[in-house]
Amino acid sequence: xxxxxxxxxxxxxxxxxxxxxxxxxxxxxxxxxxxxxxxxxxxxxxxxxxxxxxxxxxx
Length: 59
Hints:
Helices cover 25% and strands 25% of the residues.
């Protein structure tokens, strides 16, 4: 995310997070995103009708 300026489209998060798509004994990207949002590290926002994920300090 840093390389992309701290903001990425939500659909790209599973790719850039490095988290797998729900597999046995692996933490899925949805769980990673929920945890990061839960601790206030990232936030979800709307960029012209497209959902995006941003580091908290970019808001």
